[in-house]
């Protein structure tokens, strides 16, 4: 073969390789073109003003920064213990223009078969999680309870506020009551900051919620933190006992361990099933970049919002593992949690 012919063949091969690489790069490149000029609805399954709303608004603002040409709008759809909003996200068109966040208590709701659920958590298009949620048992400073031992020993029912049946604050109170033997009574209907107002008015004694959501109330010294429910002590709560350290039964410790595992999944964000892979990747990349943006980090630190992010398939696996509990755990949860 002559030198000229070899050069021609080489040029043809190189051209084909370049075209191949270009096709591959196009297939893997973010589909920003679709999102230009579009509105992405970020659904929050609670009323405005609470922790989920706060996280969604700051994350949505920075996600918009990393999806050129798109506008991210937060839309609150509360009701039925977050089920209405979660259904709305799940049943939306899978075009990448609807994402949202909801209470992790819905993991329990799906496990025990609560009515009204039209979603399967394992099938959402998972985008990420913003934090882990140390759960704290707090009581108003106007109550006589100084330690969790006082709660266990009191004969009167201790009224605890919750937003609704099926939410994490509702389920966790039932679980902690069963695990510790405390006489706790859940009063529902308090959304967002209404829980704190109910404590200040004396309508309830306390609540069991995420530390990040209650941090301002705690720092204002309007309540006492008597217990934390997490795998390890929070850096700000070194003197507050862990629920797992209480002298409780083996079954009680198993219940607390279930809460601890759920607490790893804080401030979740997902879209409906079957979002096209390239569009889902755009959303996941924007979420990742948002949670690592220096300005977001400054903003969340200033407002006391804890971050412990996870992304994409890592979070999808965590959710699937949480939903697929062993049979004995499912039976235990069904005995404790009210199904409506």
Note the topology.
Blueprint: H1 3-28, H2 32-35, E1 39-44, H3 51-65, E2 71-76, H4 83-91, E3 98-101, H5 105-112, E4 125-131, E5 135-140, H6 148-153, E6 158-162, H7 168-180, E7 184-188, H8 194-201, E8 206-210, H9 211-219, E9 223-229, H10 250-263, E10 266-271, H11 277-291, H12 294-302, E11 310-311, H13 312-323, H14 327-336
Parallel strand pairs: 1-2, 1-3, 6-7, 6-8
Antiparallel strand pairs: 4-10, 4-11, 5-8, 5-9
Q: State the strand order across the main sheet.
A: 7-6-8-5-9
Major beta sheet summary: 5 strands, mixed
Mean pLDDT across the residues is 89
Can you count the helices?
14
Q: Unreliable segments (pLDDT under 50, ≥5 consecutive)?
A: 21-28
Determine the N-to-C terminus distance.
81 Å
Number of strands: 11
Helix fraction, binned, reads 40-55%
Q: What's the helix-strand series?
A: HHEHEHEHEEHEHEHEHEHEHHEHH
How much strand content do the residues show?
15-25%
Description of the molecule:
There is one protein chain. Helices cover 46% and strands 17% of the residues. The chain is an alpha/beta fold. The chain has a five-stranded mixed beta sheet. A three-stranded parallel beta sheet has the order 2-1-3. The chain starts with a helix and ends with a helix. Residues 21-28 have low confidence and may be disordered.
Give the gist of this structure.
The protein is of the alpha/beta class. The protein has 14 helices and eleven strands. Residues 21-28 have low confidence and may be disordered.
């Amino acid at each position: 073969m002559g030198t000229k012919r070899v050069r021609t063949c080489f040029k043809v091969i190189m051209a084909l390789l370049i075209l191949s690489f270009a096709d591959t790069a196009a297939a893997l490149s973010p589909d920003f073109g679709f999102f230009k000029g579009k509105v992405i609805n970020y659904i929050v399954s609670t009323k405005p003003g609470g922790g989920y709303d706060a996280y969604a608004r700051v994350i949505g603002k920075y996600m918009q920064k990393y999806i050129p040409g798109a506008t991210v709008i937060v839309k609150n759809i509360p009701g039925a213990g977050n089920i209405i909003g979660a259904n709305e996200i799940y049943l939306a068109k899978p075009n990448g223009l609807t994402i949202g966040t909801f209470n992790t208590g819905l993991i329990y709701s799906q496990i025990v078969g609560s009515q009204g659920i039209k979603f399967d958590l394992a099938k959402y298009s998972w985008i990420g999680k913003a934090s882990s949620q140390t759960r704290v048992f707090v009581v108003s400073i106007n109550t006589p309870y100084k330690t969790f031992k006082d709660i266990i020993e009191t004969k009167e029912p201790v009224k605890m506020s919750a937003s609704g049946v099926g939410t994490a604050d509702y389920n966790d109170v039932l679980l902690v009551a069963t695990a510790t033997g405390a006489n706790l009574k859940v009063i529902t209907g308090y959304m967002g900051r209404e829980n704190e107002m109910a404590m200040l008015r004396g309508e309830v004694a306390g609540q069991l919620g995420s530390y990040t959501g209650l941090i301002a109330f705690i720092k204002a010294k309007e309540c006492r933190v008597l217990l934390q429910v997490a795998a390890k002590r929070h850096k700000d709560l070194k003197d507050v006992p862990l629920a797992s350290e209480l002298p409780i039964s083996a079954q009680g410790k198993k219940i607390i361990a279930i809460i601890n595992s759920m607490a790893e999944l804080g401030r979740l964000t997902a879209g409906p099933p079957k979002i096209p892979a390239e569009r889902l990747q755009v959303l996941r990349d924007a979420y990742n970049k948002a949670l690592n943006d220096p300005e977001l980090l400054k903003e969340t630190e200033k407002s006391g919002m804890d971050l412990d992010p996870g992304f994409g398939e890592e979070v999808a696996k965590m959710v699937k593992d949480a939903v697929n509990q062993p049979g004995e755990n499912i039976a235990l949860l069904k005995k404790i949690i009210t199904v409506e």
